[in-house]
Amino acid sequence: MPDGRTHRAINILGSAVVFGVTWLTYGLHFAIITATAYLVGELWLSPDLDHRAGSDAYKRWWILAGIWLPYQAMHAHRRWLSHAPILGTLGRLVYLSWLVGAALLVMWWIGYRMPDIEPFWREGIAVLVGVELAAITHWIADWW
Ligand SMILES: [Zn+2]
To answer: How many CB atoms lie within 10 A of CB 41?
Structure first.
C-alpha cells in the first residue's frame, strides 16, 4: 500500500507515459488534455478522497475540502465503491457534479450563459480517459 508520496511519483511518471502514447496516437492537442486530466485524476480526484483522516488529494481542495466530507461518510476507505476502476471514478464525478451544477446555477442567475460545448466532445472523452487511467493506476498501486 503506497503512501501519498509514492502515489504522486507514480502519477507523475504515468502522466509522462500517457502524454507520450497519446501524442503518438492522437497528436499533441489530445496528449496535453489527457495527460493533464491524468494528473488531476490523482492529485485532486484520487480514489483516496474516501480517506477520513484526510488524504493528500483531500488537502489539495483547501477551503473546498469540506465538500468531500459527505463522500467520506458514504464510503469506507479502499472499498470497491470508491476504488474500483470505472465505478469509483464515475461515483466521484457524479458526486462532484452537484458542486458544478450549483456553480452553473449561480452563473446562470447572474446572467452568464454557457457556450455550446458540443463541438468539444472529443476533448471531454480525453478528459474522462485521463481521469480514469489515473484511477486505474492508483488501484493497481494500492493492490500491488
Ligand atoms: Zn487508494
So the answer is: 30
Distance 142 CA to ligand 1 centre (A): 5
Distance 109 CA to ligand 1 centre (A): 38
Closest CA to 134 of 25, 70, 43, 59: 43
pTM of structure: 0.87
Task: Name the average pLDDT for the chain.
Answer: 91
**Distance (Å) from CA 124 to ligand 1 centroid:** 25
User: Residue 63 C-alpha to ligand 1 middle, in angstroms?
Assistant: 22
> Mind listing the pLDDT tens digit for each residue in 28-87?
999 999 999 999 999 999 999 998 777 899 999 999 999 999 999 998 888 888 888 999
> Ligand 1: distance of its center to the CA of 47 in Å?
5
Vertex 21 angle, CA 18 and 26, to 5°: 110
Please report which confidence band the pLDDT of residue 4 belongs to, taking 50, 70 and 90 as the band edges.
confident
Q: How far is the CA of 101 from the centre of ligand 1 (A)?
A: 27
Distance CA 134, CA 43 (A): 9
